[in-house]
Write a structure and sequence with these properties.
The chain has 146 residues and is mostly helical. The chain has one domain. It is built from seven helices and no strands. The protein is elongated, with a radius of gyration of 21 Å.
Length: 146
C-alpha cells in the first residue's frame, strides 16, 4: 500500500473539494460525496476523503439498524407479555417507555456523532491532512489504492 501522505501535498482546490465532501454529507447524505468523487476522481486526496464520506453513511445505517433491532427486542419483550385480558385495559409497561426513551437517545447520539465526525474530518481535510476515520478509513484507503 502506498502512503500518499508522505509523498503528496494537495493544492487548495483539492482541500476545498475534500472539505466539501465531508461537510456536504450532512445534508446530501451519500449523494454529495459521490458527486465530488466523480468530479475529482483523478486526485488521490479528494478520492480518499470522498470515499470516507461515502462509506460513513453506510456505517451509520448499520448503527441505526442495530438500534432498531434493540427497539424491537424491547418492544416484544415488554409489550407482548403484558397483553392479558383485552377488557382489563392495562396501561403499557414502564419498560416500554424507558426503552423508547433509550432508543431515542441512541438515535440522537448517532446524529450528533455524524455532525461531529463530518465537521472534524472536514477541518482536517481543509488543512490538507490525510486523516482517516477510525473504522472505515483503512477501507477507503484500500479502495483508492486499488
Amino acid at each position: 500500500m502506498i502512503d500518499f501522505s508522505a509523498t503528496y501535498e494537495p493544492n487548495s482546490d483539492e482541500k476545498t473539494m475534500a472539505t466539501l465532501a465531508h461537510v456536504l454529507q450532512l445534508v446530501g447524505w451519500w449523494i454529495a460525496p459521490l458527486i465530488i468523487y466523480l468530479i475529482k476522481r483523478d486526485s488521490k486526496f479528494v478520492a480518499f476523503q470522498a470515499r470516507q464520506a461515502l462509506l460513513w453513511p453506510g456505517f451509520l445505517v448499520i448503527l441505526w439498524l442495530g438500534t432498531m433491532a434493540v427497539w424491537f427486542v424491547i418492544f416484544f419483550a415488554t409489550v407482548l407479555p403484558h397483553q392479558g385480558n383485552p377488557a382489563a385495559n392495562n396501561p403499557p409497561p414502564l419498560g416500554f417507555f424507558l426503552g423508547f426513551a433509550g432508543i431515542w437517545l441512541m438515535m440522537m447520539g448517532i446524529m450528533c456523532l455524524n455532525l461531529v465526525v463530518a465537521i472534524y474530518y472536514g477541518i482536517k481535510a481543509g488543512h490538507g491532512e490525510w486523516a482517516a476515520y477510525p473504522i472505515i478509513g483503512p477501507m477507503a484507503r484500500h479502495i483508492v489504492d486499488a
